[in-house]
């Protein structure tokens, strides 16, 4: 295969890998029965008219499976952090003693678990769409190479087959991640 085709395939694979990474990050923010700091990855705190990720404003400890203790670096940010936690879609109710914020994670109800599974399925579908879009763009680039005469038809067909295999592999990976998350969510 020509260098141009190799570059197109390599670029498509890198982008698909990034899409998988985004999916993993999104899934980490979906709450399960156990406490994890990844749940807070997408929460930003409005502090002095600037939105800052919560990880830059506080430290986290997990002393028990369903308890997280958040210690703000700056005590004046305490109310802003509490407000952001309450308004998040995590379904939590933080309590503060003036020094730390305690977040007790209630047992997930069956209904809430089903909601989280729907969210996970939606995020997985977004990822699949992204991967297919990357495939479409790469295929368009391959077709352009053939049309411009920079690559032969057989060469482009082989590259398209490799691209389809790559797409299939990444979509299967998303399905595996989703299946794992569903299992995690249904665990009581």
CATH class assignment of the largest domain? Mainly Alpha
Oligomer: single chain
The residue fraction in helices comes out at 55-70%
**In one word, what is the shape?**
elongated
Q: How big a fraction of the residues is strand?
A: 5-15%
The figure for the number of domains is 2
Write down the overall mean pLDDT. Answer: 85
Order of helices and strands: HEEEEHEEHH
| Strand ordering within the main sheet | 3-4-6-5
**What is the fourth-level CATH superfamily of the largest domain?**
Ribosome-recycling factor
Number of strands: 6
The unreliable regions are: none
Determine Rg (CA atoms, Å). Answer: 22 Å
- Span between N and C termini? 51 Å
Summarize the structure.
Helices cover 58% and strands 14% of the residues. The chain is of the alpha+beta class.
What order do the helices and strands come in, and which of them pair?
Blueprint: H1 3-28, E1 44-47, E2 50-53, E3 58-64, E4 67-72, H2 78-87, E5 95-96, E6 101-104, H3 110-148, H4 153-186
Antiparallel strand pairs: 1-2, 3-4, 4-6, 5-6
């Amino acid at each position: 295969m020509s260098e141009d085709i190799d570059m197109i395939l390599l670029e498509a694979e890198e982008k698909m890998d990034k899409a998988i990474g985004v999916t993993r990050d999104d899934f980490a923010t979906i709450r399960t029965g156990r406490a994890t700091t990844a749940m807070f990855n997408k929460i930003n705190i409005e502090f002095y008219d600037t939105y800052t990720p919560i990880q830059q404003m506080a430290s986290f400890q997990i002393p028990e499976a369903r308890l997280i203790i958040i210690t703000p670096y700056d005590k004046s940010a305490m109310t802003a952090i509490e407000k952001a936690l309450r308004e998040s879609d995590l379904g939590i109710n933080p309590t503060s003693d003036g020094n730390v914020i305690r977040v007790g994670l209630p047992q997930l109800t069956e209904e809430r678990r089903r909601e989280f599974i729907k969210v996970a399925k939606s995020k997985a579908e977004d990822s699949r769409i992204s991967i297919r879009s990357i495939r479409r763009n790469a295929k368009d680039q391959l077709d352009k190479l053939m049309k411009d005469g920079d690559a032969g038809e057989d060469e482009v067909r082989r590259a398209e087959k490799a691209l389809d295999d790559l797409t299939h592999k990444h979509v299967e990976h998303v399905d595996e991640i989703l299946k794992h998350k569903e299992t995690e969510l249904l665990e009581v």
